[in-house]
Design brief:
Strand content: 5-15%
Helix content: 55-70%
Shape: elongated
Number of domains: 3
Largest sheet: 8 strands, mixed
Number of strands: 13
Structural class: alpha+beta
Distance between the termini: 49 Å
Number of helices: 17
Radius of gyration: 34 Å
């Protein structure tokens, strides 16, 4: 509820600022356009409902910010979060005089706080106040844009919209300030006419000296009061920490053996930040993105249960029972934690993921394919030609795998590794792997015909297929992260591909794959072989020409 209130009040204030800047931009047209825009603006915000919503949002948003400071066990935070906090705290004292001189003066002293009144103050009577208003406008806009960015960046569509939103974020305040400046220069020009100035003052009914003095005194009192309130929050926070220290410290242990001693009630994310340990947190510790998630080891039984909001996020990403959000988990005793994402995690990691992407044991079919004699061929080709031929080969083989329902795991040199049955049954995976092998052989023949003038001899391929239990998950670093499989079955499939040359076959597949594929392979020789690093013998089927294989379900895979 607190997070929702913070977001809702922030959106109200950002909308107010947005419409205010749009109104300012009309100054580029004329003073009349500026006045018409103000009428629309006031109709929306200066009514009983709009007033309660606006000033209620202002007070509640500020109060929630102070409450967040109080709740923090540590003040260490990322630079962007510190900047947003400091900018937010600077807005009320910078804005107070403007509110007092417009809304308060209008409601209680009969002042017509029109744009003529405001522009006369900023461009004729007190230009220094114009600089202050310029500063608060930029501070408020930057504070709001930071908040909007770190909220919207979790949305799947946001990366595509960033260039347009970024352009708007730069253009709008520029147009608003230019409109305000142009209108101000026009008012300053008109003010040089005594008759116009006398008529303007009669219409505005400006505050007298006593009222102006009262407004400035109230501004000073508000600034002092805000400073005192912030000091009181910091003192209350310090006092709470002193009382908490009497309960002793607890230790959070990280995978490298490093231990961080913290006060009870400190979140795991706060502990990481305070100790300078890099820890992912796309949303800044607001419990929305899930990138700070950790696996809990020893001490899990003594953790407070996840809140409803945390539980919803964990459910969204299909997290295991031992996984918690570091920004929401406050250990009460010693605990061991393992961050599950790199500190450089991006918003892409916030998307819901199926279990096997996080790491799961599954039975899949693995296909390895390798070009025969390509190293020798490449020695007599220019580098450009080698890259061209390989890219054509990879595109052809990749299409064959995908059309058969498989996933390209990786390209290794001139070899290909593919997985089948990751999202389905092992039987379907074996059928798909065999269908892919046939398609690869057929498409390689077509590629050889296309490249006949570029190749001294046709490209030849060796394929190995095996199935078995493997660990499937996303492994790697930064951009090199991909879904892959590790385990004995992967090594076996690779060795079957290597044996295809020794056996004089285009395809070597293990008996489990042959049995589950549904293909009639009775006419192809079977033999038992020994594989290096593997105990026992494995029965395999050697197929000299893959296109001789007939699959009963061909066309449906």
């Amino acid at each position: 509820m607190i997070r929702r209130l913070h977001l809702a009040t922030g959106l109200v204030l950002f909308t107010y600022l947005l419409t205010h800047l749009l109104n300012h931009a009309l100054g580029l047209i004329s003073l009349d356009a500026l006045a018409v825009g103000r009428e629309v603006f006031l109709a929306f915000w200066r009514n009983p409902v709009g007033t309660v919503v606006l000033y209620g949002a202002l007070l509640l948003h500020g109060g929630l910010a102070l409450a967040a400071i109080y709740r923090r066990r540590r003040l260490a935070m990322p630079l962007w979060e510190a900047a947003q906090l400091i900018l937010g705290l600077a807005i009320p004292p910078l804005l107070a005089l403007h509110i007092l001189g417009t809304r308060l003066a209008s409601e209680f002293f009969g002042v017509d706080d029109s744009y003529i009144y405001i522009l006369l103050i900023y461009f004729v009577f007190s230009p220094l106040l114009a600089l202050k208003q310029l500063l608060v406008t930029l501070v408020a806009w930057l504070h709001g844009c930071i908040g909007m960015h770190y909220w919207l960046r979790l949305k799947p569509w946001y990366p595509r919209a960033v260039p347009y939103l970024y352009g708007a974020a730069l253009t709008l305040p520029l147009l608003a300030l230019l409109g305000f400046y142009v209108a101000g220069r026009e008012v300053a020009r008109l003010a040089a006419d005594p008759a116009w100035m006398a008529a303007a003052q009669t219409s505005i009914h400006p505050p007298d000296a006593a009222t102006v003095s009262l407004i400035y005194n109230l501004d000073t009192a508000i600034i002092v009061g805000l400073a005192g309130l912030l000091a009181a929050v910091l003192f209350a926070r310090w006092l709470r920490l002193q009382l908490t220290r009497r309960r002793g410290l607890l230790r959070i242990t990280y995978p490298d053996g490093r231990q961080v001693a913290v006060l009870p009630g400190t979140t795991i994310l706060e502990a990481s930040r305070g100790a300078g340990i890099p820890h992912a947190s796309v949303c800044g510790g607001r419990g929305r993105c899930s990138t700070c998630r950790v696996r809990i080891g020893a001490g899990a039984a003594h953790l407070p249960p996840p809140s409803e909001a945390e539980a919803a996020v964990l459910l969204r990403i299909s997290a295991a029972p031992t996984v918690r959000l570091a920004c929401q988990t406050r250990p009460t005793s010693d605990v061991e934690v393992t961050p599950l994402l790199p500190a450089t995690a991006t918003p892409l990691h916030t998307l819901a993921r199926v279990a096997h992407r996080q790491g799961e044991e599954r039975e899949v079919a693995i296909l390895f394919a390798d070009l025969r004699g390509f190293t020798t061929l490449a020695e007599h080709k220019l580098p450009y030609d080698v890259v061209f031929i390989l890219n054509r080969y990879f595109a052809t083989m990749g299409a064959a795998v995908e059309d058969a329902g498989g996933r390209i795991d990786k390209f290794i040199g001139d070899g290909v590794m593919a997985l089948f049955g990751v999202d389905g049954s092992i039987d379907a995976g074996c059928r798909g792997a065999l269908a892919a092998a046939r398609s690869m052989a057929a498409r390689l023949d077509e590629l050889n015909q296309t490249l006949a003038h570029d190749l001294p001899e046709p490209l030849r391929i060796g394929i190995g297929i095996h199935s078995g239990p493997v660990i499937v998950g996303e492994l790697g670093y930064k951009a090199a992260t991909s879904l892959t499989a590790v385990g004995d079955a992967v090594n076996t499939a690779s060795r079957l591909e290597a044996m295809s040359k020794e056996l004089g076959a285009q395809l070597v597949l293990s008996e489990p794959v042959a049995a589950r594929s549904g293909a009639d392979l009775s006419s192809f020789p079977r033999q038992e072989i020994e594989l290096r690093g593997r105990t026992g013998r494995l029965t395999v089927v050697a197929v000299a020409h893959v296109l001789d294989v007939r699959i009963a379900t061909e066309g449906s895979v």
